[in-house]
Automatic annotation (TrEMBL):
One of its GO terms (molecular function) is smoothened binding. Its main location: membrane. Belongs to the patched family. Keywords: Glycoprotein, Membrane, Transmembrane, Transmembrane helix. Residues 99-121 are annotated as: Disordered. GO terms for biological process: negative regulation of smoothened signaling pathway. It comes from Necator americanus (Human hookworm). It is found in: Membrane. The keyword Membrane applies. The chain crosses the membrane at residues 6-24, 31-57. This is SSD domain-containing protein. It is a multi-pass membrane protein.
Amino acid sequence: MFVPVFHGAISTLLGIVMLVFSEFDFVIKYFFVVMSTLVVLAVFNGLCLLPVLLTIIGPEPELVPLDGSCRLPAPPPLSEQYKKKAAFGIENGLRHRKGADVEMSAKKVRSEDNNDSPKKL
């Protein structure tokens, strides 16, 4: 999240830098200085101050390990994840997953089990 905010701040500052070359002092004083100060304060607030404050006084994390430890396990390296996908292919990798890895599953309804269909007499 750091990079998009930083790019937005840099592009805004580049956009208002042309005001420095204005012939009118009030444009430099009121527009350039105020806008650049606001951008710098907003970047400091969004990237430094708020994350630290929310870490200190914010809510508890939503993900809690099942074993009761205070840290989540590290994910496997990307090279291992790509090996698994390459071995099965994307479709086969999704079809041959273990039941514990799948968040939701749906039962397949057979047409003869469906009682809502009209019956012929």
